[in-house]
Amino acid sequence: MPLRARHISFSRRSFDSFLQANYIISAFLGFIFLDFIISRDDAVYDELKKPEAEKVALPLDEDLPGMGQYYCLHCDRYFANITVRDDHFKTKKHKKRLKIMAGPAPHTQLDADLAAGMGMPDNGPKLMSM
């Protein structure tokens, strides 16, 4: 008698719930990664590279904590008062963010296009003009 592979059947409902759970987990982890590492890095990096003379004072905003006056540029967060902000400066999250911002500039779309071979073409020097 020949051996046959057993057919394992899954109900459609359990498979859909499995896919949904995996999507939720990956979306959550992706959100954490994007929120901490990638999001707003280019804007923050540009703001950090500005000279002191070009930086403007923060306007008063009633909707933000601390009227928008206690701000961490590296983490892009507002704080209720100066002591909370100073405590934030001592945290591991802030120090990690400082290390990231001190490194090279974040990648741009032009960098990605050039790496993929879709950027500006380099046809070399013109050999003959006609």
Automatic annotation (TrEMBL):
Biological processes per GO annotation: ribosome biogenesis
GO cellular component entries: cytoplasm; nucleus
Is the Zinc-finger keyword given for this protein?
A: yes
- Please list the residue ranges annotated as the C2H2-type domain: 72-94
Subcellular location per the Swiss-Prot or TrEMBL entry: Cytoplasm; Nucleus
One of the record's GO molecular function terms:
ribonucleoprotein complex binding
Keywords of the record: Cytoplasm, Membrane, Metal-binding, Nucleus, Ribosome biogenesis, Transmembrane, Transmembrane helix, Zinc, Zinc-finger
Please list every transmembrane segment annotated in the UniProt record, as residue ranges. 21-38
The yes or no answer to whether the keyword Metal-binding is present is yes
- InterPro entries reported in the protein's UniProt record: Matrin/U1-like-C_Znf_C2H2, Znf_C2H2_jaz, Znf_C2H2_sf, Znf_C2H2_type
This protein's superkingdom? Answer: Eukaryota
What protein family does this chain belong to? Answer: Belongs to the ZNF593/BUD20 C2H2-type zinc-finger protein family.
Q: What is the protein name given in its UniProt record?
A: C2H2-type domain-containing protein
- Identify the species of origin: Lactuca saligna (Willowleaf lettuce)
Lineage, please?
Answer: Eukaryota, Viridiplantae, Streptophyta, Embryophyta, Tracheophyta
